[in-house]
Amino acid sequence: MSKSWEEINARIASGEAVVLTAEEFGALAADEGIKTAARKVDVVTTGTFGPMCSSGVVLNFGHSDPPIRMAKITLNDVEAYGGLAAVDTYLGVTQPSSVRGIEYGGAHVIEDLLRGRAVRLRASSPGTDCYPRTEIDTWVRLADLNQAYFFNPRNAYQNYAVAVNSTDRALHTYMGTLLPRLGNATYSSAGALSPLLNDPLYRTIGIGSRVFVAGAPGFVAWQGTQHNPDQPRDEHGVPVASAGTLAVIADLKQASAEYFAAATFTGYGTSAFVGVGVPIPVLDEDLAATLALGDADLQATVIDYGVPRRSRPSVGRVTYAQLRSGWIEIEGKKVQTGPISSLPKARAIAAELKRWVAEERFTLTPPIQRLPQPGEASIHTLEIRTEEAV
Amino acid sequence: MPRKRFDLTFPPRQATKAITYHLVKDFDLVPNILRAAIQPGQEGRMLLELTGRKEDFEAGIAFLEAEGITVSPAASDIRLDEETCVLCGLCTAVCKPHALELAFEEGVLHFDKDKCVYCEACVIACPRRAITLSF
Ligand code: SF4
Ligand code: SF4
């Protein structure tokens, strides 16, 4: 059995497509077998809602009179990049406020914009003949901006580590508070719903794929930063450590605060929960087999964050079903687990995307270019060296 | 044995007096200080859990009141702002007494007041700052 992109898109366009979320598809395949599920279902939707630090927005403010070439820019006291054209900027989610520190950062500005709130824009410039103004202090809303779009360099990590801490003191990390002496374990993947775990070899997800980003329709723009297809994989070809990533682009004006939430990790910094969902066409039984995998089949590697090095030691491997049970066993010890990525939100995203495809006839785009496959990418480390040593 | 929680307000002078010592020694009550905000020279607050016999409670509280301390049933509570919460579950990872549980199927964060020891770990851990401790 195999279906083409064209057949599936024709069924979506006519409103006949059978669309299930990845969890529903897993249940159907368990009941009726992968063959039947592959035949019956056209599209499977995925979703994830976790902190994704490499996210941010491109904004264009329009020109004031007299105009300014903004060189130093802040939004609600959060610095935005001043190295683009006159009134363009990039605001990253992790940028802290100069007044409130990590309790209010770039992510919070974006959430405020999404909620329709006015944001204070201040900028300065040395002044030029063509842009004479040297200072501006005003208020802007999302609706006032010309363009506002997410450009997130790294989203939707294909799997992630489970974090524990073997030291004698609590650690404050981007994986949350890790209690001493293996006091807890935190994990951050949507498991069975996670986009790239459902298409582990990037057959259908590639550059140009239409995706859901924070409630807005968007696209995969490029491979995400640190995309690493060469991580170890299980017998289904699914990575057991953080592997592939996506760079995505989407209109901020169509996004919703329902699927984007600013976050502050105490002792670490600001970040943002970003909702990402990808619809996957059920092209054949091979793809159906990975779409059907559930939390009991998917594994993650447990990493000791107590070792402050680039390569932290692995202390075991567990399934997402074990993590969801609330307990895992590490080195003979029962360890309490807690998620960082919201499963209820991931479900809501997969369900919303299902509605888009089934009811709003959101058709799918085959990759214009594939993401780097295993063996096609290389991950470099940063060496500390002098110019002469290069 | 019954266990109850009380919210104590100390007048400025009394703040440092070792009342828990008397509760144990004179009234057979087992005190457990869940939260305290006491500074010399200022009005203090304490969330106190007492375990003991019913009649000892009454005597113990009468003693506290005679000391000038205002005693009221604990109103202290964890407040969860459901509008802000994204149901990530990170708070459950740091709650050792398992007072917080995220029910994945229902998509609800449950808080069991009886298990909470008011340690504030969840308040600090919540990336949405959705949990506050009122007291
Ligand atoms: S205050 Fe402590 S015990 Fe109470 S819910 Fe929060 S983490 Fe759990
Ligand atoms: S950590 Fe905060 S946002 Fe996450 S589930 Fe708990 S209360 Fe909700």
Structure description:
The complex is a heterodimer of chains A (390) and B (135). In chain A, helix 3 packs across helix 6 (285-291). Chain A starts with a helix and ends in a 31-residue tail after the last helix. Chain A is built from eight helices and 26 strands. Chain A has 390 residues and is α+β, with helices and mostly antiparallel strands. In chain A, the strands form six sheets. In chain A, strands 3, 4, 7, 12, 17, 18, 19, 20 and 21 form a nine-stranded antiparallel β-sheet that branches. A six-stranded mixed β-sheet of chain A has the order 24-23-13-16-26-25. Chain A folds into two domains: 5-52 and 151-370, no CATH class; 62-145, no CATH class. Chain B is an alpha+beta fold. Chain B has two domains: 3-73, Alpha-Beta Plaits, CATH 3.30.70; 78-133, Alpha-Beta Plaits, CATH 3.30.70.20. Helices cover 24% and strands 33% of the residues of chain B. Chain B is built from four helices and eight strands. In chain B, the strands form three sheets. Chain B has a four-stranded antiparallel β-sheet with strand order 2-3-1-4, covered by helices on one side. Chain B is elongated, with a radius of gyration of 17 Å. Chain B starts with a strand and ends with a strand. The model of chain B has no long low-confidence stretch (mean pLDDT 86). The chains are: A alpha+beta (390), B alpha+beta (135). Bound molecules: iron/sulfur cluster (2 copies). One iron/sulfur cluster (SF4) binds at residues 78, 94-95, 97, 99-100, 116-122 of chain B.
